[in-house]
Protein backbone atom coordinates (compact mmCIF):
# COMPACT_ATOMS: atom_id res chain seq x y z
CA UNK A 1 0.00 0.00 0.00
CA UNK A 2 2.76 2.32 0.92
CA UNK A 3 4.48 1.40 -2.33
CA UNK A 4 1.30 2.22 -4.27
CA UNK A 5 1.44 5.76 -2.97
CA UNK A 6 4.93 6.29 -4.20
CA UNK A 7 5.10 8.58 -7.11
CA UNK A 8 7.61 7.84 -9.78
CA UNK A 9 9.73 10.99 -10.43
CA UNK A 10 9.25 10.97 -14.21
CA UNK A 11 5.47 10.76 -13.79
CA UNK A 12 5.55 13.60 -11.32
CA UNK A 13 7.42 15.76 -13.80
CA UNK A 14 4.92 14.98 -16.55
CA UNK A 15 2.05 15.73 -14.22
CA UNK A 16 3.62 19.02 -13.24
CA UNK A 17 4.05 20.01 -16.89
CA UNK A 18 0.46 19.14 -17.59
CA UNK A 19 -0.72 21.29 -14.71
CA UNK A 20 1.47 24.22 -15.72
CA UNK A 21 0.49 23.80 -19.34
CA UNK A 22 -3.13 23.76 -18.37
CA UNK A 23 -2.72 26.94 -16.41
CA UNK A 24 -0.95 28.62 -19.32
CA UNK A 25 -3.57 27.43 -21.73
CA UNK A 26 -6.24 28.73 -19.45
CA UNK A 27 -4.49 32.05 -19.10
CA UNK A 28 -4.21 32.43 -22.88
CA UNK A 29 -7.82 31.58 -23.29
CA UNK A 30 -8.80 34.17 -20.71
CA UNK A 31 -6.87 37.04 -22.39
CA UNK A 32 -9.17 39.42 -24.30
CA UNK A 33 -8.87 38.85 -28.01
CA UNK A 34 -6.67 41.38 -29.81
CA UNK A 35 -8.85 43.45 -32.16
CA UNK A 36 -8.28 42.53 -35.74
CA UNK A 37 -6.56 45.17 -37.82
CA UNK A 38 -9.06 47.01 -39.94
CA UNK A 39 -8.13 47.80 -43.53
CA UNK A 40 -9.32 51.00 -45.16
CA UNK A 41 -8.52 51.93 -48.74
CA UNK A 42 -8.19 55.53 -49.88
CA UNK A 43 -7.56 56.50 -53.49
CA UNK A 44 -6.03 59.89 -54.23
CA UNK A 45 -6.23 61.88 -57.42
CA UNK A 46 -6.16 65.55 -58.26
CA UNK A 47 -7.91 67.04 -56.25
CA UNK A 48 -9.68 64.66 -53.91
CA UNK A 49 -9.51 61.56 -51.77
CA UNK A 50 -12.01 58.72 -52.31
CA UNK A 51 -13.61 58.25 -49.91
CA UNK A 52 -13.18 61.69 -48.43
CA UNK A 53 -14.34 60.53 -45.01
CA UNK A 54 -13.43 57.36 -43.15
CA UNK A 55 -14.63 56.20 -39.76
CA UNK A 56 -12.35 54.33 -37.37
CA UNK A 57 -12.72 52.99 -33.86
CA UNK A 58 -10.54 54.13 -31.01
CA UNK A 59 -8.22 51.33 -29.96
CA UNK A 60 -8.73 49.28 -33.09
CA UNK A 61 -5.62 48.98 -35.27
CA UNK A 62 -6.01 50.10 -38.85
CA UNK A 63 -4.06 49.71 -42.04
CA UNK A 64 -4.79 52.62 -44.35
CA UNK A 65 -3.95 51.59 -47.89
CA UNK A 66 -3.17 54.59 -50.02
CA UNK A 67 -2.90 54.65 -53.81
CA UNK A 68 -2.92 57.41 -56.41
CA UNK A 69 -4.47 57.48 -59.86
CA UNK A 70 -2.34 60.25 -61.26
CA UNK A 71 0.67 61.80 -59.54
CA UNK A 72 2.51 62.11 -56.25
CA UNK A 73 0.26 63.24 -53.41
CA UNK A 74 0.65 63.63 -49.69
CA UNK A 75 -1.38 62.18 -46.85
CA UNK A 76 -1.04 64.42 -43.83
CA UNK A 77 -3.01 64.12 -40.60
CA UNK A 78 -0.96 66.14 -38.12
CA UNK A 79 -3.52 65.78 -35.33
CA UNK A 80 -2.97 62.01 -35.38
CA UNK A 81 0.74 62.20 -36.15
CA UNK A 82 0.32 60.60 -39.58
CA UNK A 83 2.23 61.54 -42.70
CA UNK A 84 2.98 59.63 -45.87
CA UNK A 85 3.67 60.12 -49.53
CA UNK A 86 1.39 58.42 -52.04
CA UNK A 87 3.63 57.38 -54.91
CA UNK A 88 2.20 56.43 -58.32
CA UNK A 89 2.33 52.69 -58.94
CA UNK A 90 2.76 51.85 -55.28
CA UNK A 91 0.48 51.05 -52.37
CA UNK A 92 1.42 52.95 -49.24
CA UNK A 93 0.40 51.39 -45.95
CA UNK A 94 -0.14 53.53 -42.87
CA UNK A 95 -0.52 51.34 -39.78
CA UNK A 96 -1.70 52.95 -36.58
CA UNK A 97 -4.12 52.59 -33.71
CA UNK A 98 -6.31 55.62 -33.02
CA UNK A 99 -5.90 56.64 -29.40
CA UNK A 100 -8.39 59.48 -29.29
CA UNK A 101 -11.83 60.23 -30.64
CA UNK A 102 -12.81 63.16 -32.78
CA UNK A 103 -12.82 64.48 -36.33
CA UNK A 104 -9.42 65.03 -37.91
CA UNK A 105 -8.50 66.69 -41.18
CA UNK A 106 -6.52 64.62 -43.68
CA UNK A 107 -5.00 66.69 -46.44
CA UNK A 108 -2.64 66.46 -49.36
CA UNK A 109 0.51 68.34 -48.42
CA UNK A 110 2.37 67.99 -51.69
CA UNK A 111 1.30 70.84 -53.94
CA UNK A 112 -0.43 69.28 -56.91
CA UNK A 113 -2.12 72.12 -58.78
CA UNK A 114 -4.87 74.69 -58.70
CA UNK A 115 -7.25 72.58 -56.61
CA UNK A 116 -4.60 71.47 -54.12
CA UNK A 117 -5.91 73.68 -51.32
CA UNK A 118 -9.22 71.82 -51.39
CA UNK A 119 -7.77 68.31 -51.49
CA UNK A 120 -8.68 67.15 -48.03
CA UNK A 121 -11.01 64.87 -46.12
CA UNK A 122 -11.97 63.77 -42.65
CA UNK A 123 -11.00 60.92 -40.39
CA UNK A 124 -13.67 60.27 -37.79
CA UNK A 125 -12.58 58.28 -34.75
CA UNK A 126 -15.43 56.99 -32.59
CA UNK B 1 -1.99 73.66 -30.65
CA UNK B 2 -2.91 77.09 -31.88
CA UNK B 3 -0.24 79.72 -31.93
CA UNK B 4 -2.65 82.49 -32.75
CA UNK B 5 -2.37 85.74 -30.90
CA UNK B 6 -4.16 88.94 -31.61
CA UNK B 7 -2.50 92.31 -32.12
CA UNK B 8 -2.91 93.32 -28.47
CA UNK B 9 -1.37 90.07 -27.27
CA UNK B 10 1.43 90.42 -29.78
CA UNK B 11 2.18 93.97 -28.68
CA UNK B 12 2.38 92.77 -25.08
CA UNK B 13 4.74 89.95 -26.04
CA UNK B 14 6.89 92.39 -27.93
CA UNK B 15 6.98 94.69 -24.94
CA UNK B 16 5.00 97.48 -26.55
CA UNK B 17 1.53 97.32 -25.03
CA UNK B 18 -1.57 98.67 -26.68
CA UNK B 19 -0.17 99.76 -30.01
CA UNK B 20 -2.97 100.11 -32.51
CA UNK B 21 -1.41 99.81 -35.93
CA UNK B 22 2.27 99.49 -35.24
CA UNK B 23 4.11 96.79 -33.40
CA UNK B 24 7.72 96.53 -32.40
CA UNK B 25 9.52 93.69 -34.01
CA UNK B 26 13.04 93.87 -32.75
CA UNK B 27 12.76 94.13 -29.00
CA UNK B 28 14.49 97.01 -27.30
CA UNK B 29 17.35 95.59 -25.32
CA UNK B 30 20.32 97.11 -23.55
CA UNK B 31 22.50 94.90 -25.70
CA UNK B 32 20.88 96.18 -28.84
CA UNK B 33 21.49 99.76 -27.86
CA UNK B 34 25.10 99.02 -26.98
CA UNK B 35 25.51 97.31 -30.31
CA UNK B 36 23.97 100.31 -32.03
CA UNK B 37 26.10 102.85 -30.24
CA UNK B 38 29.11 102.14 -32.37
CA UNK B 39 27.17 102.29 -35.59
CA UNK B 40 26.60 105.31 -37.71
CA UNK B 41 23.40 107.13 -36.88
CA UNK B 42 20.31 107.75 -38.96
CA UNK B 43 19.98 104.29 -40.45
CA UNK B 44 16.25 104.61 -40.61
CA UNK B 45 14.40 103.41 -43.65
CA UNK B 46 11.23 101.72 -44.68
CA UNK B 47 10.18 99.13 -47.19
CA UNK B 48 6.85 97.88 -48.52
CA UNK B 49 5.66 94.28 -48.41
CA UNK B 50 3.16 93.05 -51.01
CA UNK B 51 2.04 89.46 -51.15
CA UNK B 52 -0.07 86.85 -52.86
CA UNK B 53 -1.25 88.73 -55.93
CA UNK B 54 -2.08 85.43 -57.73
CA UNK B 55 -1.95 87.08 -61.14
CA UNK B 56 -4.05 84.96 -63.50
CA UNK B 57 -6.65 83.97 -60.91
CA UNK B 58 -10.20 83.77 -62.23
CA UNK B 59 -13.30 83.60 -60.06
CA UNK B 60 -15.84 86.39 -59.98
CA UNK B 61 -17.45 85.22 -56.75
CA UNK B 62 -14.08 85.54 -55.03
CA UNK B 63 -12.62 88.57 -56.75
CA UNK B 64 -14.37 90.10 -59.77
CA UNK B 65 -11.62 92.72 -59.84
CA UNK B 66 -8.79 90.22 -60.19
CA UNK B 67 -7.33 92.11 -63.14
CA UNK B 68 -7.32 95.47 -61.40
CA UNK B 69 -6.30 94.55 -57.84
CA UNK B 70 -2.53 94.32 -58.41
CA UNK B 71 -2.38 97.47 -60.57
CA UNK B 72 -4.42 99.22 -57.87
CA UNK B 73 -1.87 98.24 -55.22
CA UNK B 74 0.98 99.43 -57.44
CA UNK B 75 -0.78 102.78 -57.86
CA UNK B 76 -1.32 103.11 -54.11
CA UNK B 77 2.35 102.41 -53.37
CA UNK B 78 3.38 104.89 -56.05
CA UNK B 79 1.18 107.49 -54.37
CA UNK B 80 3.18 107.36 -51.12
CA UNK B 81 4.67 110.79 -50.51
CA UNK B 82 7.97 109.32 -49.45
CA UNK B 83 8.92 106.30 -51.49
CA UNK B 84 10.30 103.21 -49.73
CA UNK B 85 13.91 102.10 -50.04
CA UNK B 86 12.73 98.86 -51.59
CA UNK B 87 9.67 96.69 -52.14
CA UNK B 88 9.36 92.99 -51.47
CA UNK B 89 6.82 90.52 -52.86
CA UNK B 90 6.51 87.53 -50.52
CA UNK B 91 5.36 84.95 -53.05
CA UNK B 92 2.43 83.71 -55.09
CA UNK B 93 3.04 86.43 -57.61
CA UNK B 94 1.00 84.35 -60.06
CA UNK B 95 -1.80 81.84 -59.76
CA UNK B 96 -0.74 78.31 -60.62
CA UNK B 97 -1.43 76.62 -63.92
CA UNK B 98 -0.52 73.22 -65.34
CA UNK B 99 0.53 74.85 -68.61
CA UNK B 100 4.20 75.93 -68.51
CA UNK B 101 3.63 78.46 -71.30
CA UNK B 102 0.67 79.99 -69.50
CA UNK B 103 2.74 80.13 -66.29
CA UNK B 104 5.39 82.14 -68.13
CA UNK B 105 2.77 84.38 -69.72
CA UNK B 106 1.36 85.19 -66.28
CA UNK B 107 4.84 85.90 -64.92
CA UNK B 108 5.57 88.20 -67.85
CA UNK B 109 2.33 90.10 -67.27
CA UNK B 110 3.04 90.35 -63.55
CA UNK B 111 6.54 91.65 -64.28
CA UNK B 112 5.13 94.27 -66.66
CA UNK B 113 2.64 95.50 -64.06
CA UNK B 114 5.20 95.85 -61.27
CA UNK B 115 7.58 97.63 -63.64
CA UNK B 116 5.28 100.58 -63.08
CA UNK B 117 6.44 100.85 -59.47
CA UNK B 118 8.42 104.05 -58.96
CA UNK B 119 10.84 102.21 -56.72
CA UNK B 120 13.07 100.08 -58.88
CA UNK B 121 14.63 97.96 -56.14
CA UNK B 122 12.10 95.15 -55.95
CA UNK B 123 12.83 91.83 -54.28
CA UNK B 124 10.91 88.72 -55.27
CA UNK B 125 10.47 85.24 -53.92
CA UNK B 126 8.18 82.46 -55.09
CA UNK B 127 5.06 81.01 -53.56
CA UNK B 128 3.92 77.47 -54.19
CA UNK B 129 1.68 78.72 -57.01
CA UNK B 130 4.74 80.11 -58.79
CA UNK B 131 7.20 77.32 -58.15
CA UNK B 132 5.90 74.04 -56.80
CA UNK B 133 4.88 72.46 -60.11
CA UNK B 134 8.26 73.03 -61.78
CA UNK B 135 10.58 73.34 -58.76
CA UNK B 136 10.99 77.06 -59.42
CA UNK B 137 12.23 76.80 -63.03
CA UNK B 138 9.95 79.46 -64.55
CA UNK B 139 10.33 81.75 -61.54
CA UNK B 140 14.12 81.71 -61.88
CA UNK B 141 13.86 82.62 -65.56
CA UNK B 142 11.94 85.77 -64.69
CA UNK B 143 12.99 86.79 -61.19
CA UNK B 144 16.29 85.07 -60.37
CA UNK B 145 17.26 82.99 -57.38
CA UNK B 146 14.62 81.73 -54.99
CA UNK B 147 16.75 82.12 -51.85
CA UNK B 148 19.37 84.77 -51.22
CA UNK B 149 20.52 87.43 -48.78
CA UNK B 150 21.12 91.14 -48.97
CA UNK B 151 22.10 93.83 -46.52
CA UNK B 152 20.54 97.23 -46.22
CA UNK B 153 21.51 99.96 -43.80
CA UNK B 154 22.70 97.60 -41.11
CA UNK B 155 19.93 95.02 -41.39
CA UNK B 156 20.67 91.55 -42.77
CA UNK B 157 17.83 90.26 -44.93
CA UNK B 158 17.42 86.56 -45.66
CA UNK B 159 15.03 85.25 -48.29
CA UNK B 160 14.08 81.60 -47.74
CA UNK B 161 12.40 79.35 -50.30
CA UNK B 162 9.94 76.90 -48.77
CA UNK B 163 7.92 76.31 -51.93
CA UNK B 164 10.15 75.03 -54.73
CA UNK B 165 9.89 71.69 -52.98
CA UNK B 166 6.19 70.86 -53.44
CA UNK B 167 6.35 69.13 -50.06
CA UNK B 168 6.93 72.51 -48.38
CA UNK B 169 10.44 71.90 -47.13
CA UNK B 170 13.48 74.15 -47.10
CA UNK B 171 15.64 71.09 -47.60
CA UNK B 172 19.07 70.15 -46.31
CA UNK B 173 20.95 72.13 -48.93
CA UNK B 174 19.20 75.40 -48.11
CA UNK B 175 19.42 74.78 -44.38
CA UNK B 176 23.16 74.26 -44.77
CA UNK B 177 23.39 77.49 -46.74
CA UNK B 178 21.45 79.31 -44.01
CA UNK B 179 23.72 77.91 -41.31
CA UNK B 180 26.82 79.11 -43.19
CA UNK B 181 25.31 82.56 -43.71
CA UNK B 182 24.37 82.97 -40.06
CA UNK B 183 27.81 81.82 -38.94
CA UNK B 184 29.24 85.04 -40.34
CA UNK B 185 26.96 87.33 -38.32
CA UNK B 186 27.26 88.96 -34.92
CA UNK B 187 24.47 87.76 -32.63
CA UNK B 188 23.29 91.37 -32.30
CA UNK B 189 22.85 91.91 -36.02
CA UNK B 190 19.23 92.75 -36.83
CA UNK B 191 17.87 90.06 -39.13
CA UNK B 192 14.73 90.14 -41.23
CA UNK B 193 13.59 86.93 -42.89
CA UNK B 194 11.27 86.91 -45.87
CA UNK B 195 9.55 83.70 -46.80
CA UNK B 196 6.26 82.55 -48.27
CA UNK B 197 4.90 79.91 -45.93
CA UNK B 198 4.99 80.30 -42.17
CA UNK B 199 8.18 78.76 -40.81
CA UNK B 200 6.27 77.48 -37.80
CA UNK B 201 3.27 75.14 -37.60
CA UNK B 202 0.50 77.71 -37.75
CA UNK B 203 -2.07 75.19 -39.05
CA UNK B 204 -0.34 72.18 -40.52
CA UNK B 205 -3.62 70.49 -41.43
CA UNK B 206 -4.42 73.57 -43.55
CA UNK B 207 -1.00 73.34 -45.19
CA UNK B 208 0.08 76.47 -43.30
CA UNK B 209 3.49 75.28 -42.19
CA UNK B 210 7.01 74.48 -43.38
CA UNK B 211 7.91 70.86 -42.82
CA UNK B 212 11.45 71.60 -41.63
CA UNK B 213 10.87 75.23 -40.65
CA UNK B 214 11.66 74.50 -37.01
CA UNK B 215 15.27 73.83 -38.00
CA UNK B 216 15.54 77.32 -39.51
CA UNK B 217 13.96 78.85 -36.41
CA UNK B 218 16.41 76.97 -34.20
CA UNK B 219 19.30 78.41 -36.20
CA UNK B 220 17.89 81.92 -35.89
CA UNK B 221 17.12 81.65 -32.18
CA UNK B 222 20.59 82.68 -30.90
CA UNK B 223 20.24 86.04 -32.67
CA UNK B 224 18.77 88.80 -30.56
CA UNK B 225 16.80 90.65 -33.22
CA UNK B 226 14.94 88.48 -35.71
CA UNK B 227 11.68 89.18 -37.49
CA UNK B 228 9.97 87.07 -40.13
CA UNK B 229 7.60 88.48 -42.75
CA UNK B 230 5.64 86.00 -44.82
CA UNK B 231 2.51 85.55 -46.96
CA UNK B 232 0.58 82.43 -47.97
CA UNK B 233 -2.28 82.67 -45.47
CA UNK B 234 -3.88 85.77 -47.05
CA UNK B 235 -4.45 87.72 -43.86
CA UNK B 236 -2.68 89.85 -41.32
CA UNK B 237 -1.45 87.56 -38.58
CA UNK B 238 1.10 87.90 -35.79
CA UNK B 239 2.80 85.24 -33.76
CA UNK B 240 5.94 84.58 -31.76
CA UNK B 241 8.30 81.62 -31.48
CA UNK B 242 10.36 82.56 -28.46
CA UNK B 243 11.61 86.10 -29.12
CA UNK B 244 11.21 85.75 -32.91
CA UNK B 245 8.21 87.59 -34.34
CA UNK B 246 6.32 86.27 -37.36
CA UNK B 247 4.02 88.55 -39.38
CA UNK B 248 1.79 87.38 -42.22
CA UNK B 249 0.61 89.92 -44.77
CA UNK B 250 -2.72 90.50 -46.39
CA UNK B 251 -3.20 89.18 -49.91
CA UNK B 252 -3.85 91.10 -53.12
CA UNK B 253 -6.44 88.67 -54.47
CA UNK B 254 -8.70 87.18 -51.74
CA UNK B 255 -8.65 86.81 -47.95
CA UNK B 256 -8.62 83.48 -46.13
CA UNK B 257 -10.34 82.65 -42.84
CA UNK B 258 -8.45 82.81 -39.56
CA UNK B 259 -6.57 79.60 -38.77
CA UNK B 260 -8.95 76.83 -37.66
CA UNK B 261 -11.86 79.26 -37.48
CA UNK B 262 -13.91 76.88 -39.62
CA UNK B 263 -13.76 73.16 -40.41
CA UNK B 264 -12.37 73.68 -43.90
CA UNK B 265 -10.37 76.55 -45.27
CA UNK B 266 -11.69 78.30 -48.36
CA UNK B 267 -11.33 81.75 -49.89
CA UNK B 268 -13.63 84.36 -48.38
CA UNK B 269 -16.13 85.50 -50.98
CA UNK B 270 -16.10 89.01 -52.39
CA UNK B 271 -18.36 91.41 -50.55
CA UNK B 272 -19.93 93.80 -53.08
CA UNK B 273 -20.81 96.16 -50.22
CA UNK B 274 -17.14 96.30 -49.24
CA UNK B 275 -15.02 95.77 -52.34
CA UNK B 276 -11.34 94.90 -51.72
CA UNK B 277 -12.15 94.19 -48.07
CA UNK B 278 -9.24 92.59 -46.20
CA UNK B 279 -6.89 93.00 -49.13
CA UNK B 280 -3.88 95.23 -48.80
CA UNK B 281 -0.18 95.77 -48.29
CA UNK B 282 2.20 96.74 -45.52
CA UNK B 283 4.75 99.42 -44.77
CA UNK B 284 7.64 98.30 -42.55
CA UNK B 285 9.83 100.91 -40.91
CA UNK B 286 13.25 100.00 -39.58
CA UNK B 287 15.39 101.95 -37.17
CA UNK B 288 18.64 100.06 -37.23
CA UNK B 289 20.48 101.95 -34.46
CA UNK B 290 17.63 101.20 -32.08
CA UNK B 291 17.22 97.71 -33.51
CA UNK B 292 13.51 98.32 -33.85
CA UNK B 293 11.01 97.85 -36.63
CA UNK B 294 7.38 98.88 -36.80
CA UNK B 295 4.78 98.36 -39.45
CA UNK B 296 1.53 99.76 -40.73
CA UNK B 297 -1.13 97.88 -42.63
CA UNK B 298 -2.60 99.56 -45.72
CA UNK B 299 -5.95 98.01 -46.69
CA UNK B 300 -6.71 98.59 -50.36
CA UNK B 301 -9.04 101.51 -50.88
CA UNK B 302 -12.51 100.70 -52.16
Structural account:
- The complex is a heterodimer of chains A (126) and B (302).
- Chain A has 126 residues and is of the alpha/beta class.
- Chain A contains 1 helix and 9 strands, in the order H-E-E-E-E-E-E-E-E-E.
- Chain A has a 4-stranded mixed beta sheet with strand order 2-1-4-7, with no helix packed on it.
- In chain A, a hairpin with a 4-residue loop joins strand 5 and strand 6.
- Chain A is globular, with a radius of gyration of 26 Å.
- Chain B is α/β, with parallel strands linked by helices and 302 residues long.
- Chain B has a single domain (7-299), classed as Purple Acid Phosphatase, chain A, domain 2.
- In chain B, the strands form 2 sheets. In chain B, strands 4-5-6-7-9-8 form a 6-stranded mixed beta sheet, with helices on one face. Chain B has a 5-stranded mixed beta sheet with strand order 3-2-1-10-11, with no helix packed on it.
- Residues 1-41 of chain B have low confidence and may be disordered.
- Chain A binds chain B through residues 72, 74, 76-79, 85, 103-105, 107, 109-114, 116-118, 120, and chain B through 95-98, 128, 132-133, 163, 166-168, 201, 204-207, 211, 263-266.
Short description, anyone?
The complex is a heterodimer of chains A (126) and B (302). Chain A has 126 residues and is α/β, with parallel strands linked by helices.
Amino acid sequence: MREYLKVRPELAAVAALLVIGGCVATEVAQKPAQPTEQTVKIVAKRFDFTPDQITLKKGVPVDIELTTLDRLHGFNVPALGLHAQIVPGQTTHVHFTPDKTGRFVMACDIFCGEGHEGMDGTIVVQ
Amino acid sequence: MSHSIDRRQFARLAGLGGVAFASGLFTHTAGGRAWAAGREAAKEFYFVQLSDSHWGFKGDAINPEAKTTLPKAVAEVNALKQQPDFIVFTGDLTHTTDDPQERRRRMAEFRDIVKELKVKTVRFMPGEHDASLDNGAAFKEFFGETHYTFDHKGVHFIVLDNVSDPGASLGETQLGWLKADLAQLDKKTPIVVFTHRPLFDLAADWDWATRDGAQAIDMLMPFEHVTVFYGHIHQEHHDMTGHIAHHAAMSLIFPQPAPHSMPKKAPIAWDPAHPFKDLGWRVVESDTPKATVSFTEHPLKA
